[in-house]
Design a protein that fits this description.
Length: 521
């Protein structure tokens, strides 16, 4: 297979993770001589130069020096955790201008704790009944624009998510079983037809609380979400707050904060696993304190200066254009450099460039490199400088210049399909600790095909290619906030196919498929 078809067939993972050597054999990987000691390299893990931003899977943000110092100080003394949380709650109330607050094990944990608090009200009997919440308030209303992988934080408690798209549906959905309303902060929640303000005018008279997920934002005083009617707001500690990555904040109504706290560690029951250590609590509080002291305008100026430096370094490459895109709204408040090129001069797609940087030395993450999303088939990449260290922008610029100024031509030979895969296939997939029966329904035209892949969660579309005997099948399930990417790579022999299945963040599996034999009784 040629380089282009390998890349275009990917559904998940950087190419380096899905097809080892697919590019390295054709293109020399960039490298630099600079090396520094690393605790990660000591255990065989390659460090990353973060040119992507505050993304969890590559380590999120750089912890502030003040946070590191506070965490180190906290380690040297012991404290009763509930008393610590009480003290931190009082200080967060002062900082945020809300009734109370608490430190959680991340924004997702804040969502789960808030949901459990609204379901149980802090009643220990009910806390011990989770996830069997029969007879409790067991429904969470969610707007259509809020559906994402992150509402799994609500579903963990056992609630049923009731999705609404307009005011009429919202009014019909609210009732005695409604524990709360969950909203994802953004343009729609602030100014949409089903905004936070609109929803709160309906829910307040009914006594139904609203939780806003503002994970990628920084807090403000007065809090804009509380001002518009939210009862609780969740923030990530490991993004722009630059606190411990495994910490977050939940702020808002004191009664609901206390109920949420009862559903986290150190308390036993459902939420015991969501405990936060004393050093993380103090580190997160320090990050919140520092947020209101930091010079955010100076930080944004630095981020833009770095991106301008990169753009200036690579602007001489023929067929290349750059644009610095400024953030809009409160979420992810850092600029991106969009690097685009003329495909006739630079015969790469974005995924190929991302992969070359990922496989280089140092390993550089741009765009979606290191994650498990659909491949970047645009002729562009994104660079974010918010988590770079001094001098990183020069390294990034030089390696991007090296790749785009000396592109390698794509191979032109593609083998024709050796068979027609059309029809039903019975699939056996072996995961880490289970074997599951699945099905493919395929309609093939030439060397490409489409159809349906049915797994445990239900059916979803598939697309794929066959070149010679090499088969590539990709499929994504994205219903009700779920995010499951499947990339089947293998070979066909007669009426049998088999190979490896890449599942993105869920690892790998092996698969084998047989053409279905219809048996008439």
């Amino acid at each position: 297979m040629n380089r282009r078809n390998v890349i275009k067939s990917l559904a998940i993972l950087p190419v380096s993770m899905a097809v080892p050597g697919a590019l390295s054999a054709a293109v020399p990987l960039p490298s630099i001589a600079a090396k520094r000691k690393s605790v990660y390299e000591a255990i065989g893990v390659k460090p990353i130069l973060n040119a992507r931003g505050t993304v969890t899977v590559i380590g999120a943000s750089k912890v502030l020096p003040e946070v590191r110092d506070a965490m180190d100080a906290a380690i040297h003394e012991f404290v009763q955790i509930d008393e610590l949380m009480d003290g931190v709650g009082r200080r967060l109330a002062e900082l945020m201008g809300t009734e109370s607050g608490c430190v959680t094990a991340g924004a997702s944990a804040a969502i789960t704790a808030a949901t459990a608090g609204c379901v149980t009200g802090g009643d220990p009997d009910k806390i011990w009944m989770i996830p069997n919440i029969t007879g409790m308030k067991d429904e969470v209303v969610i707007t259509s624009y809020s559906r994402s992988a992150y509402d799994a934080g609500c579903k963990a408690v056992g609630v049923r998510m009731i999705q609404v798209a307009n005011v009429i549906e919202l009014q019909a959905a609210l009732g005695p079983r409604t524990a709360m309303v969950y909203l994802l902060a953004g343009e729609e929640s602030e100014r949409g037809a089903l905004s936070l303000k609109v929803i709160s005018e309906i829910t307040k008279p009914l006594g139904i609380p609203i939780l806003v997920d503002a994970a990628a934002e920084g807090p403000e005083k007065p809090n804009p979400h509380i001002s518009q009617g939210a009862d609780l707001v969740a923030y990530s500690g490991g993004k722009y707050l630059r606190g411990p990555q495994c910490a977050g904040l939940l702020i808002g109504r004191k009664d609901l904060i206390m109920a949420a706290r009862m559903n986290t560690g150190p308390h036993h029951g459902f939420g015991r696993g969501f405990k936060v250590g004393r050093e993380e609590v103090i580190g997160m509080l320090t990050a919140a304190e520092m947020w209101f002291k930091r010079d955010h305008e100076a930080e944004k100026k630095l981020w833009n200066t770095r991106l301008e430096s990169i753009a200036n370094r690579i602007k001489s490459v023929p067929g290349l254009t750059t644009l610095i895109k400024q953030p809009v709204g409160r979420s992810n408040p850092s600029p991106d450099l969009i690097i685009s090129w003329d495909n006739t001069r630079i015969p790469y797609i974005g995924q190929e460039v991302e992969d070359l940087l990922w496989n280089g030395n140092p390993r550089i993450s741009v765009g979606s490199a290191g994650s498990y999303f659909q491949p970047n088939q645009k002729t562009s990449i994104l660079v974010n400088s918010s988590q770079m260290s001094e001098g990183d922008e020069k390294i990034v610029a030089n390696l991007i210049f090296e790749i785009l100024s000396k592109p390698q031509p794509a191979a032109a030979t593609v083998a024709a399909a050796t068979t027609d895969l059309s029809g039903q296939w019975d699939v056996e997939t072996k995961f880490y600790a289970s074997t599951v029966s699945q099905t493919f329904m395929i309609e093939q035209k030439g060397d490409a095909f489409e159809g349906t892949y049915t797994g445990s969660i239900g059916p979803r579309d598939l697309t794929g290619t066959i070149h010679g005997t090499d088969v590539l099948i990709r499929s994504t399930y994205g219903v009700d906030g779920a995010r499951v990417h499947s990339f089947f790579a293998g070979k066909v022999t007669g009426d049998t196919m088999e190979g490896e299945l890449s599942l993105g963040e869920y690892g790998k599996a092996t698969w084998k498929a047989w053409r279905h034999v219809y048996k008439m009784k």
